Amino acid sequence: PDYFRYSRSISYYNKGAILGFLLDLGIRHATENRSSLDDVIRRLNSDFARQDRFFTLADLRAIIADLAPEFGELDGFFDDYVSGTRELDYATYLGYAGLRLVVTEDERPSPGFSVVRLFEDRVAVEDVDPASPAAGAGLEPGDTLLRLNGRELGQSPQDQVDKLKRGTIRLRVRRGRRELQLEFAMGTSRQFSYRVEEIDHPTEEQRRVREGWLEGTTVEAVGAGKR
User: Fold this and answer.
1) Taking the model in full, what pTM does it have?
2) Residue 222 lies in a domain
3) Which helix (H) or strand (E) holds 35?
C-alpha cells in the first residue's frame, strides 16, 4: 500500500513526458538540429508499426544511434534516467537550448497529513509528514478519521483538510478498536515551484536548438530548408 503514497512513488506519465523533452534536446544538440525525437518516432513507425512488428528498448536505442551518431550521451541517458533512478540533469539538457530551470522554495502552513475517502466510505489518513506536529501528536497512516475540529467529514475530505490555515487542529480517529483524540498545532511545509527561463546571452546554436524544439522543426542535413 505504501507504493501508492505520494511520497513513495512517481508518475511515469509525467516523468516519461519530461524524458522525451530532454531526449529531444539531446538529439537536436548533438546533430546541430538536423534530427529530432520526431525522426525517431517516424522510424519506429515505418520500421516496426507498419511492419506489424514490436520493438525493444535495444531497437529504440539503435535507431537513435543511427539518426544521431554524435549523441555520445545516449547510453548514459538510458542507463541513468530510463533504467536507473539518477536525478535528471536539467541544467545540461535545457542548457542546450539556452534555458535553465529555476526552483523557488517557499514555506507555507500545512496540516502535515492527507486523507482519502475509501470505497467502503471510510475516510483514512493517507500520508503523514514524519517531521510534522501531526506525526508528533501520534497520527499514523491508516488511521480512520472520524471528526475534524469537531465536525464529520464530507464527500471531499481532503478539501476540508486543505482549508485549514492556522491554529489548533483537533482530530478524532479510530485505530483498530480504539478511538483517539489528537490535538496539535498547524505546522509548515516547504513548497517548491518550478519555471524554465532563458539564460542571459544564449549563443546562436542554443537559439537554433530552442527554435527547432519549440516549433518542432529540423534543419535538413543538406541545404537550409526546414521540415
Assistant:
1) 0.76
2) no
3) none
